[in-house]
Backbone:
């Protein structure tokens, strides 16, 4: 099992460029989420999904789009990069319990994004 | 919206001392999860608490979920240098599946 795989690991963008951060999991997890972590800060939820075809906004969704066409993949799109989006981005996935809760999330190793 | 605060923000302890971090939510939580993030790494899931007043132990770590399901704590007995990192709690209120992370407590252990 590869777990949660994020690509790329590092990226530098110019202001106004767009790009897609890739996230794939091979554990058949229903729940997937994207978080951003700024230096010395906690994790803030960008978007999340409770299953294929279902996505919802988190705490800081502006400037980002997601889609979940398959259980395995949950890409995050930056529409027009801004310096304020410089951060480390983590993708995470979790099984869903019979009660609909998420079990503990498994995190990818992150994508370090710099917008200049 | 839901907010999850942790105190303290930072804690330096001598190796062998105990350590506690507290997690407080503005809303009642369905469950609470705890994670550890080593410097430069990604968060790693430690444990989940579901029931009001629940207490769970993992070796030197003791986790508690408050009776009102709005707060939680993590206590480490006799810290070791391997305990260094940032500890996060995370939870969601009933009716949503947004897992919101706490602000984190960064632990430094001095040998």
Residues:
């Amino acid at each position: 099992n590869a777990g949660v795989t994020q690509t790329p690991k590092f990226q530098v963008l110019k202001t106004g460029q767009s790009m897609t951060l890739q996230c794939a999991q091979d554990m058949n997890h229903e729940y997937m989420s994207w978080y951003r972590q700024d230096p010395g800060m906690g994790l803030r939820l960008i978007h999340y999904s409770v299953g294929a075809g279902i996505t919802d906004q988190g705490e800081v969704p502006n400037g980002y789009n997601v889609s979940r066409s398959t259980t395995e993949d949950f890409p995050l799109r930056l529409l027009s990069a801004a310096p304020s989006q410089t951060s480390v981005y983590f993708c995470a996935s979790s099984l869903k319990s019979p009660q609909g809760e998420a079990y503990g999330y498994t995190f990818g190793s992150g994508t370090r994004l710099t917008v200049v | 919206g839901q907010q999850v605060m942790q105190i303290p923000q930072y804690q330096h302890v001598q190796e062998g001392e105990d350590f506690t971090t507290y997690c407080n939510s503005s809303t009642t939580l369905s469950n609470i999860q705890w994670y550890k993030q080593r410097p430069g790494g990604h968060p790693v899931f430690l444990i989940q608490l579901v029931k009001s007043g629940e207490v769970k132990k993992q070796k030197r770590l003791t986790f508690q979920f408050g009776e009102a399901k709005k707060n939680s704590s993590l206590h480490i007995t006799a810290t070791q240098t391997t305990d260094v990192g940032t500890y996060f709690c995370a939870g969601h209120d009933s009716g949503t599946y947004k897992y919101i992370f706490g602000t984190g407590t960064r632990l430094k252990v001095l040998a």
About this structure: The longest strand of chain A covers residues 43-51.
